[in-house]
Specification:
alpha+beta; five-stranded mixed β-sheet; about 525 residues; two-stranded antiparallel ribbon
């Protein structure tokens, strides 16, 4: 398996720091192997040098021992011949010198035993035994040389020849072992040299491969990061960096970029939505201003027009038509009330938005209030030829603690809307009460609403459709104010409607709010 493949497999599980540690450790291991191989070669060369020195020393000791034995043999033979032909004793100095020479031979023999190890133990033991026997004969010869009587026979060459033979065998064995050791050491040196060269070249190759793999993997990770940043910078916030390809620092950085992109995308979407809402609100307020100006102008025109007509009639000298005069004054009063209602709605919404709308709680009868509101608004029924159905059981309803004015305005707005959007239909006002809540429903058989229109019917400054304001008039504030009043009183309002099947508004208010 190639090194790049190994790095590819390790990449998802190793961080950048881990890769650096891994590659550095691998390079250090290769370096340690090279150093160990070099030390092994140096040790082998040192062993070769020591073996050569031991072989040379052993050869020198063997030659020296052989020469000492030969010289001592000749010396003993000469002394033996002299003792047979003359009776001259040896001087003490000569005896001491002879014993010293024998001690030198023994010392050389001992030194020779320090070389060769277990491989030469047997040969050295045989040499030691034969040489010790020979030296002991010579030692006895010198001890008894000045004494009367016969001396040990030293002319027999068998002991000497045996010692010489054992010495030659030891020398041959030493040479053979030295050659073997030299060959083995030479092979070791050759092998270590080869390993060193191969290891050096291999270390360079593997190091280069690891460095290349490290650069390649890191560059791939950084390239993905760069590509992602470029895509983010170009505005493509849907692009995501593959954070599973890396771990550790780069993986964390990729996840951070992805999270930042997600948050930025969400922020931009929220900003666009807020801008769209603001544009929609501005458009709604523009429409509202247009509707308000129209709604203000209509009753004002009626008030001014009928006032001018009455003024002209009073300026004429003819008799006043009291019935017509009374009708014109009623129209002025109705238009003034209509204008006052519109202004009150605008003021109420302004107070609600600024948080200055106050509540005034009192104990009152909701059944009586509903009947009074329906009686006061009964003229609205005649405008579109509608009929009213009251479904209020006063006997089962009790007093409640609430804001009488807010409840009156809620019912007034719902009743007015029902009358406005219903032609020759029926308006039904129902009320019921349990231990906790008062439930009021205002239903009509008018134009109804689609689900989309129901979703925005309680928004301020809006009506179900733009054409609705043109055809039926109004500012779109009534239901928004109703919803806000229901919320302030601790209740709720909901709508049920179908196109051309009418609408039903259901209000639930607590009997004794907290």
């Amino acid at each position: 398996m190639r090194t790049a493949d190994v790095v590819t497999q390790l990449r998802p599980r190793l961080s950048l720091r881990g890769r650096l540690y891994l590659f550095s450790g691998a390079i250090l291991i290769l370096f340690a192997i090279n150093v160990a191989t070099s030390l092994w070669g140096s040790f082998a060369r040192n062993e070769s040098s020591l073996a050569y020195q031991e072989a040379v020393t052993a050869a020198q000791l063997t030659a020296e021992l052989e020469q000492n034995l030969q010289n001592k043999r000749q010396q003993v033979l000469v002394l033996a011949t002299l003792r047979e032909t003359t009776d001259d004793p040896l001087e003490d100095s000569q005896l001491d010198q002879a014993r010293a020479d024998l001690d030198i031979v023994v010392e050389r023999l001992r030194q020779l035993g320090n070389y060769g190890g277990a491989d030469l133990e047997a040969h050295y033991r045989r040499l030691h035994d034969s040489a010790t026997t020979l030296i002991e004969q010579w030692r006895q010869f010198y001890i008894r040389y000045n004494q009367t009587g016969p001396t040990p026979s030293v002319e027999d060459p068998r002991s000497y020849n045996t010692a010489q033979q054992r010495l030659q065998e030891l020398d041959q064995r030493q040479s053979f072992i030295a050659v073997q050791r030299a060959n083995a050491i030479d092979r070791t040196i050759t092998l270590t040299d080869q390993i060193t060269v191969v290891g050096f070249i291999g270390s360079i190759a593997i190091t280069l491969a690891l460095v290349f793999a490290m650069i390649r993997s890191t560059n791939a990770s950084l390239t993905r990061m760069k590509r992602g940043v470029e895509r983010f910078g170009s505005g493509d916030l849907t692009y995501r960096i593959d954070e599973q390809r890396d771990s550790g620092e780069i993986g964390d950085l990729a996840r951070t970029f992805n999270e930042m992109s997600t948050k930025l995308q969400t922020a931009i979407e929220e900003t666009n939505a807020a801008r769209a809402d603001a544009d929609s609100a501005n458009a709604a307020k523009s429409m509202f201003l247009a509707n308000v100006s129209h709604e203000l102008r209509t009753p004002l025109n009626a008030i001014i027009g009928y006032s001018e007509m009455l003024q002209d009639e009073l300026g004429d000298e003819t008799d006043i038509n009291r019935e017509q005069f009374h009708h014109d004054l009623a129209t002025i009063i109705f238009s003034g009330r209509q204008l006052l209602t519109l202004i009150n709605d605008i003021l109420d919404l302004s107070k609600i938005e600024t948080g200055k709308m106050q509540m005034s709680f009192e104990v009152f009868s909701p059944a009586d209030l509903l009947v009074q509101v329906c009686d006061a608004l009964s003229p609205l029924l005649t405008q579109n030829q509608n009929t009213l159905v009251l479904n209020i059981d006063k006997d089962k309803m009790r007093d409640m603690n609430g804001d009488r004015g807010k409840l009156q305005q809620i019912v007034t707005n719902l009743f007015s809307n029902a009358c406005k959007f219903t032609q020759q239909g029926q308006i039904t006002v129902s009320a019921s009460m349990d231990q906790q809540d008062l439930t009021i429903t205002v239903a009509d058989t008018g134009i109804g609403m689609t689900p989309a229109q129901q979703a925005r019917v309680f928004e301020a400054f809006t009506q179900a459709e733009a054409s609705t304001a043109v055809k039926y008039g109004g500012t779109g504030l009534g239901l928004a104010i109703v919803k806000e009043f229901c919320t302030m009183l601790g209740g709720s309002i909901e709508v049920e409607s179908k196109p051309n099947k009418g609408s039903l508004f259901r209000v639930r208010l607590p009997v004794a709010p907290a």
